[in-house]
């Protein structure tokens, strides 16, 4: 207790000193609460499950002159500089390439299980990133396009089965689709989660339901570690068996064909490619006769698979749902999208899957589709970036003040960066053409201001995979389906089904907001910023004659 009091005192004394020196930070800091009450004031303006990036965007409006400010949420979160200045963000991720803070690892440990490239720095990071990179290369991913198309086909079949029927959660459909893809691309497992339940998604969904990066109401729940450990063990058991199986398959292929499977040019998962390098680089000349994988290596590989399932699934599925939502909201860009697909894949929509599977590189010709996806990610960025300040690294605020970073985390919050009115023309409008104009055009994106996958050596390893997946889904759906959000009906159903206490609270308590900037569709705190209430919607077939 005495230790905690002493730590708290030392910590707050430092923030108090920075405050006196004029470090930009919100009013309302206190020795007892730091900025926790300030944050609460902002979060309470939005729905309880709204993503933290949304109140941060609101708070950022007060710091237009500096484009960064300090938030002291210690001890529930390290004190951090919230930065939405593109030039300073570039300094943090490129010039200084600041290390990942310990919090980057500890905050995802219940999900990932232990160390991974998300938390590694220096040589560990270099070694593992180099080992994993080949599986995410553009060339390797093109080999997976036929499988991704098959998954998108199942997604379309499920949508078709819903035409003319009631409300369903598009988010649930998209999450199942991306899970099938990520399991195949990373682990070579074909689990068909779109049609059947499976232990791995059940486990990871349960673990993430009990997870928060910052919210003490979740973090302090004593049941949380028990649930997360139980499901963590289930994941590890499954992954270890699959890993061992892949290892056996690769060894057998080498023995029978004499060549490494990589040279046989069939689609290989991220993990198979990493195991190939492991075999190639092994000092054990008898590796092909070795019965089991090195235990330490297998443990870290297992962490990475868990990391990919977490970092790669929800981010991609949420983006798919927001893209389909924007298609329904903006008829003109939607019609451009369809025209592009007609011209590249031919007017016979029923042949799209066949054409794309035969020529995956056609995806790269879909310039408007890519622009549509990029603009979706600008408005609904699912990630953020966290770095650790150092004694050498200072960040220049917009007003010229030079800010020290030592001992502070730096968080690049993408929502306020992507909608910074100083640098973006019409920041709140959906304009895919921003991504098609030439440099010098007023819509041309400013350097460093667009960073959904972030920029620099540690940019997202899964960027190409996500973009391939999202473009494939748009190509497969845009000419077939209309989506109609059904929030009003959904809210009515929820109100009818509410229990006695919920009804009483609604009747007599303070009504909680359920829109963000008057929009019922918003990003939530659920891992990967899933859309509110899972995006309840109806689907209709596109009437090609009427289009
Ligand atoms: C729309 C989809 C996605 C978005 C917006 C996104 C965003 C991000 C961001 C902002 C970072 C931090 C970069 C930095 O620290 O500089 C990151 C890192 C990372 N992402 Fe993604 N991501 C997406 C999809 C994926 C996928 C599909 C995977 C893997 C299957 C993945 C795996 C990772 C990993 C492993 C890192 C850590 C990279 C490192 O530190 O070397 N992400 N992502």
Automatic annotation (TrEMBL):
Pfam families: p450 (PF00067). Heme binds at residue 460. GO terms for molecular function: heme binding; iron ion binding; monooxygenase activity; oxidoreductase activity, acting on paired donors, with incorporation or reduction of molecular oxygen. Transmembrane segments: none annotated. The keyword Cytoplasm does not apply. Keywords: Coiled coil, Heme, Iron, Metal-binding, Monooxygenase, Oxidoreductase. InterPro entries: Cyt_P450 (IPR001128), Cyt_P450_E_grp-I (IPR002401), Cyt_P450_sf (IPR036396), Cytochrome_P450_monoxygenase (IPR050121). Its cofactor is heme. PANTHER family: CYTOCHROME P450, P450, PUTATIVE (EUROFUNG)-RELATED. This is Cytochrome P450. It comes from Trematosphaeria pertusa.
